[in-house]
Amino acid sequence: MAAGSEFQPIGLAWCKKDDVRPSHSLLLVSNPIAISTDSILVALCDVIQHLTGVSRREESGKTLLLLEFDQNTSDVVLPPSGELKVTLSGREVVFAVHRLTRVRSDKVTVADLKARGLLSSTDKDESAQPAGVEGPTVALQAALSKCKIASSRRLAPFSGVATGETFDAWVEVAQGQLDEEDEEAEKKRRIREALRAPAANIITDLRRENPQATSEDYLQALELAFGDTHTADELSIKFHSLHQKQGEKPSEFLTRLQGILRKLTRKGGAPADKTNKMLLTQFMKGTLYNEMLLVNLQLKDKIETPPTYLALLKMVRREEAEQAEKVSRREPKPVPQPIKTAKHGKLSQGESKRTNTKESTHQRPNFCFKCGQDGHYRTRCDNQPDPEKVNERFVSFYLQGNERGRQKKADSAPKN
């Protein structure tokens, strides 16, 4: 079974063009065959399990078949000879099998042992069933063990419509999941599976224009169509001018900073190896209402070796919890309460009346006793005397109840 043959580069290029995973594909080569691809697929399904599709190509006087499987080809049972014999239209056709990835030599499956005649089906069944366990239970366990977990690895769907999830929220989760994949073809496949119209149409147009587009190209195209319209320079200005709001916790401000920094990194405005330092610097600069937290955490000493976002968030939240615990243990200051007994209530009313009377007796008419106008007194009055107006002012002052006491120290009528 050839793994480094001359046909391997052809198969790898074929997988890349059709966006197929090489680890889940095999290349079969034979002499020219004048039989339909549908008939070949039906015949192959009788001899190979887990087969999901076949692509055909005639090249260099040979018939090439690219087989795609629903699992890794290292788990597919194949003849040890490296040749696959298939009966097509009554005659036997021999295919040379070419693997496109290296086989894990340290793995041996029960199916391989059966294919080599080293293990019979009865031996496997007898050894597999534990003592005291019913047959249906064993069958259920076997069925559950074969369940696929591929659905849990799928990305969340994204359509790009206004009523759905925003691109920024979707791409944050999607990038984290895609980082777990090593194969570029698998990344592109998972992105396409998650997209719905009109977002799916963007990738269709991109593949038509650039068949060799990578997963990063996919995400950049979606960013242009549905992402933030701010440029990298605009996001950089926004990031460096961000400050803590009044009433906002430092951890909440830090999370808000990190969200802007992620966008800035995606736009190419911040190098990935400088993000930790940028985040710490702006957090110290923008924290306006919790400066003691910066001192307690000694963040200025960490500028040259800044912690990661998660490490910094952990430090900040822990300090917040400690400060909140100290505040909760402080005894509240006693607030004096007024005495509301009936006796004291009457007394306070009497005292209030005397106080009001005392205050009223010390009030003085604030007008000129010569001309009756406001803003000056008789000693500095240059106007003509107006006794009639002065008397009117005194009458109104008298009606206010302020005549008593005032007459003891002031004349009831102005002196000419």
Automatic annotation (TrEMBL):
Q: Which InterPro entries match?
A: PNMA (IPR026523), PNMA_C (IPR048270), Znf_CCHC (IPR001878), Znf_CCHC_sf (IPR036875)
Q: SUPFAM superfamilies given for it?
A: Retrovirus zinc finger-like domains
Q: Which Pfam families match?
A: PNMA
Q: Which residues form the CCHC-type domain?
A: 368-381
Gene3D superfamilies recorded for this chain? Zinc finger, CCHC-type
One function term, GO molecular function aspect: zinc ion binding
Which residue stretches belong to region Disordered?
A: 323-366
Output compositional bias ranges, type Basic and acidic residues: 323-333, 351-362
**Keywords for this protein:** Metal-binding, Zinc, Zinc-finger
What PANTHER family does its record include? GAG PROTEIN, PARANEOPLASTIC ANTIGEN
Quote the protein name from its UniProt record.
Paraneoplastic antigen Ma1 homolog
Q: What is the lineage of its organism?
A: Eukaryota, Metazoa, Echinodermata, Eleutherozoa, Asterozoa
Q: Which gene encodes it?
A: LOC110990815
